[in-house]
């Protein structure tokens, strides 16, 4: 009960109270109508007035829609629990003359109101700001102020929002004078990228042109990856560069006249949380960065350095393909488009006679709807439904001869850490602190719901496992990576570290006539020391690094990007079977 109450307190404390007040008003009206009915149910004239009064919630709901959905341009879906309560109040009055019927409906309405309240807590953004009608300079200032007040990691990351505002305001002023939306978007994105937080996002309306954006991705016919030996090679090359002598595996030495390492360091800050991951990814981003023509130097087949000019041939495909392949996450523009991939979540199979496989794409029962199991799992700190799914899958694998297990977290989009704790609980006999739900008060972090933990059942503690992770494993995926790495029978492995972002989202800011949207975390997840769980500090050093780095040489790169083999998965199988023989 303490965990449940603490979880509710954290959710309510964190969110903007405006819509909770609206909900309270609707609930109070419903309660008042119910009390009045018991006193006037025998008076026909008063019942007529009472019925008219029952339309007040519907009238208020229309006002709410006008203010927040039409004028405020917020999603109507977030407010459905409020409107549902208004509708239930009206339906209840239709049975006003029926003594028993109204009592039954009143009880049902009360129970549904509780359900609506809980749903509202999970559907509402925690902090929403709409500055879309303000000028670029004014909205940028208001954005900086709002994030200074509500960004949950301000103290942890030593963020000086005033200094960031001052740094980028000249660029914003230029954008305003030029009426240049793209330049304003670039300024907002550069501002937010300095937070180095995987939960901070900036989106530009997809209908807007970005040809002049600093973050525009060009296509030069190749992508580059950085190997463990510090060499940089080309992958996913196109015929346009093949005919110039650059093929998959060709060593690239210079980009646009600069030594390749210096060139990678010169690209815009992409906001990657973990510095080590950022260095790995910078060569991929560099592959799409430059003018219409770039001079590229490489080692040709004769072993000498050669320089050629590459043309921008249009929309980028090679870098997107490289990122998609390595992240193990589809390049989808919507959840619907990614559904086939998400539907693999919780899936299991045998890889060999004795090596099982578990895929965890997301720590949610569904990505299309809010499931009761997810809500109660988060509130109680014990996700029973997912634990049963894991138990069933692992039991079936063990019946097929599983001695070793590969847990695939690559590209994990996150969800609820409690699901990660549920999996870890089956793989150990012991107790491990998972996460605590906290609040930020006067710059201090306070844990109000600490028992979201790993409670070992020991059912599969005899299984040796490798958990595969990567830079695209974020949020609750980050959490699952950490919790599994604590277990002595599980090894966390990857070419890169997990993303390094575990706080809960909920902050939303709208700018520039609803064309730019900023999202950021406002809800606190803590570790056993009352520190933000996992998220990097200003030094950007990973706080949940892989225990074993998977070697990444030329052969590995060509297996992944040229022949299309799952090199990391093959490595995990060999690691488990060879190191345990």
Automatic annotation (TrEMBL):
Protein's UniProt keywords contain Transmembrane helix: yes
Membrane spanning stretches: 20-37, 49-70, 76-95, 102-124
Gene3D superfamilies the record matches: 2-enoyl-CoA Hydratase, Chain A, domain 1, 3.30.750.44
Any one of the GO BP annotations: proteolysis
GO MF terms, alphabetically ordered: serine-type peptidase activity
Domain Tail specific protease: 334-537
Keywords, in A-Z order: Hydrolase, Membrane, Protease, Transmembrane, Transmembrane helix
InterPro entries noted in UniProt: ClpP/crotonase-like_dom_sf, Tail-specific_protease
Superkingdom to which the source organism belongs: Bacteria
Matches recorded under SMART domains: TSPc
UniProt protein name: C-terminal processing protease CtpA/Prc, contains a PDZ domain
Protein's organism: Butyrivibrio hungatei
């Amino acid at each position: 009960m303490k965990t449940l109450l603490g979880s509710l307190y954290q959710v309510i404390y964190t969110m903007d109270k405006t819509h909770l007040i609206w909900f309270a008003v609707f609930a109070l009206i419903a309660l008042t109508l119910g009390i009045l009915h018991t006193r006037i149910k025998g008076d026909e004239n008063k019942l007529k007035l009472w019925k008219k009064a029952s339309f007040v919630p519907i009238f208020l709901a229309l006002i709410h829609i006008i203010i927040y959905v039409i004028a405020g341009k917020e999603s109507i879906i977030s407010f459905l629990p409020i409107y549902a309560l208004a509708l239930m109040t009206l339906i209840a009055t239709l049975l006003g003359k029926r003594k028993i019927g109204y009592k039954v409906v009143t009880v049902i309405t009360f129970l549904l109101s509780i359900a609506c309240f809980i749903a509202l807590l999970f559907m509402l953004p925690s902090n929403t700001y709409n500055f879309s009608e303000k000028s670029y300079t004014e909205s940028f200032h208001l954005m900086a102020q709002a994030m200074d007040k509500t960004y949950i990691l301000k103290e942890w990351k030593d963020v000086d929002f005033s200094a960031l505002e001052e740094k980028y305001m000249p660029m914003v002023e230029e954008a305003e004078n030029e009426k240049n939306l793209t330049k304003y978007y670039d300024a907002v994105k550069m501002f937010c990228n300095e937070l180095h937080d995987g939960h901070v996002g900036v989106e530009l309306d997809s209908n807007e042109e970005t040809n002049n954006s600093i973050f525009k991705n060009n296509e030069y016919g190749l992508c580059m990856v950085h190997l463990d030996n510090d060499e940089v090679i080309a992958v996913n090359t196109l015929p346009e560069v093949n005919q110039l002598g650059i093929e998959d595996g060709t060593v690239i030495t210079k980009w646009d006249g600069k030594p390749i390492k210096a060139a990678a360091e010169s690209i815009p800050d992409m906001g990657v949380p973990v510095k080590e991951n950022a260095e790995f990814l910078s060569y991929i981003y560099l592959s799409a960065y430059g003018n219409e023509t770039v001079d590229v130097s490489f080692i040709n087949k004769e072993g000498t350095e050669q320089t050629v000019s590459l043309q921008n041939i249009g929309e980028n495909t090679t870098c997107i393909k490289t990122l998609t392949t390595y992240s193990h996450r589809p390049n989808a523009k919507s959840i619907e488009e990614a559904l086939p991939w998400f539907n693999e979540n919780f899936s299991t199979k045998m890889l060999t006679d004795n090596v099982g496989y578990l895929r965890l794409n997301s720590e949610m029962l569904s990505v299309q709807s809010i499931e009761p199991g997810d809500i109660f799992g988060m509130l109680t700190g014990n996700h029973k439904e997912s634990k049963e799914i894991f138990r069933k899958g692992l039991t079936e694998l063990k019946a097929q001869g599983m001695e070793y297990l590969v847990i695939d977290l690559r590209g994990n989009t996150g969800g609820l850490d409690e699901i990660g704790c549920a999996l870890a609980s089956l793989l150990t006999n012991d107790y491990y602190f998972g996460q605590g739900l906290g609040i930020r008060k006067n710059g201090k972090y306070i844990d109000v719901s600490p028992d979201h933990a790993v409670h070992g059942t020991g059912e599969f503690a005899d299984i040796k496992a490798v958990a595969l992770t990567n830079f695209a494993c974020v949020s609750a995926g980050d959490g699952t990576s950490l919790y599994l790495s604590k277990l002595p029978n599980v090894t966390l492995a990857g070419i890169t570290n997990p993303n390094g972002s575990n706080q809960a989202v909920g902050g939303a800011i709208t700018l520039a006539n609803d064309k730019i949207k900023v999202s950021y975390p406002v809800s606190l997840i803590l570790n056993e020391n009352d520190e933000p769980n996992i998220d990097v500090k200003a030094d950007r050093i990973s706080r949940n690094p892989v225990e074993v780095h998977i070697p990444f040489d030329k052969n590995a790169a060509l297996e992944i990007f040229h022949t299309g083999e799952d090199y990391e998965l093959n490595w995990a199988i060999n690691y488990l079977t060879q190191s345990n023989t």
